[in-house]
Amino acid sequence: MDTRPWETMIRVEYINTKKQFIQLYETLKNENAFYFRGQENECWPLRNALHRLKLDRKKKDLPLPNEMKMIGEFMDRLKSKCTGRNLWDVIGAMQHYGIPTRMMDFTESFLIASFFACTEASFSSCSGRFNSIVFAVNRKIPKSGSPDVSLSDLAEFSKEKEVDISYALFVHRMVKPVPRVRIQGGVFLFMHNPYIELAAKLSIENNWFVMRKEKGIYDIEEQWARSTGLLLIQFSLPAPEFLRIKEFLKSENIDDEHLFPDAQGKIRGISNRI
Length: 274
Fold this sequence. Notes:
Elements: E1 10-15, H1 18-31, E2 34-39, H2 49-59, H3 67-77, H4 79-82, H5 87-96, E3 104-107, H6 110-119, E4 122-124, E5 129-138, E6 143-144, H7 154-158, E7 169-172, H8 179-183, E8 186-191, H9 198-205, H10 208-213, H11 220-226, E9 230-238, H12 239-251, H13 256-259, H14 263-273
Parallel strand pairs: 1-9, 6-7
Antiparallel strand pairs: 2-5, 3-8, 4-5, 5-9, 7-8
Helix pairs in contact: 6-12
């Protein structure tokens, strides 16, 4: 069997109570197999901010974003934030300061991802529940160790290739992380082509035929270790359970004041307590 449907490579967990949440947390803590990303809206796709900006501007018939120009301007204007950093650390710093980049924020902590998913989870008046999602990417899929690329090489690095499987998925840990990224256990996932949705990329990366032919992975145990390419953790919580999970996270020091070590943390804390 050389191929498997992509749907069989997605594992889905449903969280409706605090008890289910704690049980899944204990399981994931022992597995240590995923990078996590919490999103407050379960319908949002896995797109980086640069991709979202491009789609928004295209829809409005506005000039498309110029990634290299944004990076160059950031490096010129904020030299102190870029000194001693490689290109990917610079882009990570841009991401931290809210500039649209090709990187997607992930964390090594399920609890921290759950905090971001639950803090502003969308409320459905139809079901009377708070709905959000945590995406978890199998750690075996992204390449660790960022490619050696300078700003002048970025256009060639990003050039569209004939076959999608020739694009790698990378995980980047900042060499000089800003405090917030360090505290949040942050890592960044990115690709050669910033305009591919991550779920689509994972469907290619984790196809058994691709693993065998392109990556030389023939060992059945390794194939199965990668077979859950994407774990979806869907929260659908009535208000009492929603509040219990938030209280549990706070008891683990997963709250605004601890995750945002500056004035923003205090301000967020006040806002979210109202």
